[in-house]
# Entry
Amino acid sequence: MNNNILIAQSGGPTAAINAALAGIISAALKSDNTGEIFGGVNGVQGILEENIISLTERFEGDEDALRRLRFTPDMYLKTCRYKLKKPEEDDSDYTRLTEIFKKYNIGMFFYIGGNDSMDTVARIKTFTESRGLSVKVVGVPKTIDNDLVEIDHAPGFGSAVKYVATTFREVMMDTGLYPLEYVAVVEIMGRDSGWLTAAAVLAPPENFPSEPVICLPEVPFDKEKFIDRVNEEVQKAGFAVVAVSEGLKDKDGNYISASTGYVDKFGHPQLSGTASALAGLIKEAIGCKVRSIDLGSAQRSAGHISSETDINESYNLGENAFRYASEGKSGIMATLTRKGNDPYIVEYGYVDVTKVANRVKDVPPEWIDEDNFTVTADMIHYLRPLTEGETKVDYKEGLPDYLYDRY
Amino acid sequence: MNNNILIAQSGGPTAAINAALAGIISAALKSDNTGEIFGGVNGVQGILEENIISLTERFEGDEDALRRLRFTPDMYLKTCRYKLKKPEEDDSDYTRLTEIFKKYNIGMFFYIGGNDSMDTVARIKTFTESRGLSVKVVGVPKTIDNDLVEIDHAPGFGSAVKYVATTFREVMMDTGLYPLEYVAVVEIMGRDSGWLTAAAVLAPPENFPSEPVICLPEVPFDKEKFIDRVNEEVQKAGFAVVAVSEGLKDKDGNYISASTGYVDKFGHPQLSGTASALAGLIKEAIGCKVRSIDLGSAQRSAGHISSETDINESYNLGENAFRYASEGKSGIMATLTRKGNDPYIVEYGYVDVTKVANRVKDVPPEWIDEDNFTVTADMIHYLRPLTEGETKVDYKEGLPDYLYDRY
# Structure
């Protein structure tokens, strides 16, 4: 009887992706009809190599480990960036997956990931169905980029917003301390969409004399306007802090990080960051003290300041995904819709995964205040509730007691 | 009657420097003999310009504000990097300070800062005494660099260690997720001493397959040995994470960040970070995916993950400083001595400030394992207790509710 389940994770890590995994495992362990729960290590790539572990063995009867998993950032089952070919071109991977599903008596397959992963979900559903397998294939969303469609916001995003806004608040307060002109430039993740960079708008504490200068990838970079805006802030407050998306481009679509043309002594172009490129421009144009900060992967993995709202929603989406699969649904993604901001209310549901696959949710242009290098009140109202509530992570010897298993 | 007090802050910010300020204010407000409490804005530089505010007006009767101050990172009274001249060369600043002290009836002056600030404390004490003023001049220590002598560890350092080790843990877990060879390089503050960079040694969670590769400024950088060590880690675990001090130098004493010789398209040398310089070397030598992270000022200002031990010690040092001044002591720095690690016990006291001024506490060479790019168990035992306990910062609308006053 194919009542075993298989779960895997894919794409970039977030602080909330393990909460979704914990939600699925918890719901499956409580269910009477579930057999063994398997985890595929390194996404579909690992499943194809039969890199499969038993999650039942690991978590059954260990409530504490399941609780720690919920608050552990990054990905318990690791990840891959493997993209399945179109089955009409090459169906060997699908055939192999079908074999694995049969061998392990898989009745439900859950894939936690972003756009690409939802494409994988859709294709596996179609192929396995065409081969007469009754496996239910369900997607569970996550991405700090928040570019998933058919969901109000993606799990993982709220925690990243909380981390970025908090860190930006601390950096703004730091930058304003010196009796000299000083600009800090902070690079924020999100190559194609500015959702996370916009989080800087939440940063200034009450009474603060300066607003962040926000450069989104949706707005072609105009050097003169930018320098004017930074100068305006420096004149007003004595300092300025810039939030720049790693994916900032000029009007011709070239990345700013590349176009500054730094080369090493052998003439190779350097992998310079966007923040350090802007810092160079500011130094040249204004001549004041400038520092750049590149938070890198710290911003998607910051479990120590994850949002309780985000972690709970991700957990609920995992639980719901299991329920939908148990009810016989397949080819869907668990989702949520915002029903109100004050109080903040979401409604859970599901959506046909083909509506999600390979699409991108952009920042609405009317939420961007291009002239003032900032975002509008609509964006603030959208972001704020996602950061509410503090993580319940345990600490051991002074550090967050994350769950890590070696296998 | 000169029973008013003046407090100022100097040097770089930390997560615990406002706790010391809160300790002094709290003790002064409780004392029967204290007049008004003044704050000098922007350190001695601000005091010279008579940039002085009343802390009595701000905090008397407002327990909540004093509590928030305790947990607010950065510097409530802002800072300066102003260095007083030697009085025998030019005593105009000292004469001006003496006038200000007289005008405001200052009986006690507290200066919270690092090495340079303790030098300022010593000089002001000597000069005011020579002019017959009875002002008590007391230093209160802080620095994330931990290079202050005559104290077991500097307030602010423990919180920075907690932040760096936590973030490094999250980045290590992130880096190990992909089924490909991947190296992350994280740049950590501390230009001349490796205390904070050493905090990376605490990062790996239990069962983790990789150890951080740690590059301290105390060890001349050897490119071949470094690449070998990174390669060894990549072979063993499939990935590696490097912790590098911003102040890493080669055997000739040149900064690694400068010696890689990146120039912009106009031929100007770029202000490249040390991490991105090492990332470039790794990319060239190993050819795998490499990312660099520069946490910048985020690591000295991370109030959201400050160490309770650190905040409490800083607060206690502030309270004690007030007590010592009340007892008539002058020209001293409040200090603490470690009496045990298990349980962790410190004893508070004071030391002649001239013993502290302009000296530097290096990492003991025997705590550095040069061959293995790491630090020894002695360093781990030294660091661990400083990170214990979590901050009690309040949250408002999802973010830490820091105290910021505009003046």
In short: Chain B has twelve helices and 15 strands.
